[in-house]
Amino acid sequence: xxxxxxxxxxxxxxxxxxxxxxxxxxxxxxxxxxxxxxxxxxxxxxxxxxxxxxxxxxxxxxxxxxxxxxxxxxxxxxxxxxxxxxxxxxxxxxxxxxxxxxxxxxxxxxxxxxxxxxxxxxxxxxxxxxxxxxxxxxxxxxxxxxxxxxxxxxxxxxxxxxxxxxxxxxxxxxxxxxxxxxxxxxxxxxxxxxxxxxxxxxxxxxxxxxxxxxxxxxxxxxxxxxxxxxxxxxxxxxxxxxxxxxxxxxxxxxxxxxxxxxxxxxxxxxxxxxxxxxxxxxxxxxxxxxxxxxxxxxxxxxxxxxxxxxxxxxxxxxxxxxxxxxxxxxxxxxxxxxxxxxxxxxxxxxxxxxxxxxxxxxxxxxxxxxxxxxxxxxxxxxxxxxxxxxxxxxxxxxxxxxxxxxxxxxxxxxxxxxxxxxxxxxxxxxxxxxxxxxxxxxxxxxxxxxxxxxxxxxxxxxxxxxxxxxxxxxxxxxxxxxxxxxxxxxxxxxxxx
Length: 497
Description:
This protein has 13 helices and twelve strands. It has helices at residues 23-44, 76-90, 156-166, 174-186, 205-216, 218-230, 294-305, 313-330, 358-370, 386-400, 408-428, 431-453, 465-479, and strands spanning 2-6, 64-70, 96-102, 111-118, 121-128, 195-197, 247-254, 263-268, 289-292, 308-311, 339-345, 494-495. Helix 9 (358-370) packs antiparallel against helix 12 (431-453). It is elongated. 36% of the residues are buried. The model is unreliable at 482-497 (pLDDT under 50).
């Protein structure tokens, strides 16, 4: 297992003050956030926040921490963010931690790859939670709940979670359904994080105020956005389009009535202030709603709604763009909450299954070729009999004097005697060749298994519970104020046993 925490957990310090909004505005923003978390808990039977709106006051604002991911069937590296969030929250009593479900994106919600073994060979088996991923161009928030049925080949944890989900079918969207499913899967692991959906944000005052700021000076907002994107070309964020008559905004328009284009880019026309939003070729219909794109999402969360946000390694890289954009656009007084990164490489244990690297296969082939002619070099000296020692002594004498005699007939006779001596040694120790042949067969089978055996992105519910508990413990230990001498401090990348 490899654990990745950036920076060192000792430096994971949430923002203590937020100088930008007025105290009353900050309280109102966070009370609205808390109301959304409580609504989701009640509506979809998700974990309930320990705080109430009345607990948020200007005199004692609680620390708010968050992480998040898409509503897909994700791997333990994503689960590591939840474990890190709970570990960080434990260091700040009275804090509020929640998991953001990114539901405005387009991704596969119901399929995953599972490992399957047959005849000493590892295979990839595709898990389908539903018959199809209908409307593959639709974001998760616009997909209806799927008909998910347990199957015999599913991991036990998933089967149990699906049974629990079937008893409480409250979800109205695929994203809500997957949030419920993950709640049932994570609860046995000690994870009980309230849930916010990305599509909840447009109803919050903080988001509305942010969009108003975009529209107040879209030229400056978009110019600084694109400049920040250009400084990080490897982050995978595309610049916003600018035209003479319209400017692209970092927003999506989600239309549940459109099958062809349920998610579209949003533009603004500065010359028409009474109609600030347009689509590429049309006005904005009233049937849909706005949603944030990636940088807008983290910008809104980090400006007023949270005091720290935990990404994976990819999000940690691209959110440096958000920090630069907000600083260049709004100024240093609008300093966003800090971001941290948590991920992990967790590998399946396949007991009894041969797994080999290319180097191991090369060694096995060398041994299979070398051993028939050199059994004496691979025998344990403590296991030699007197007859073995006599054969080995005779062989070494022949080798030492092989070039003393140039007569072809006598040299050929010496070579034949060498083969006879090797054959006698192998006859006395038949396990030598048998072991080498077995090693080669295992390595040849193992090289076929190597790629799948070293995958880190199997869905987390397919892993044994003890491995997931080990991941949780490793993260808790990394955040412990007094670490064991045997466990190193976690920095950019740490390997734990």
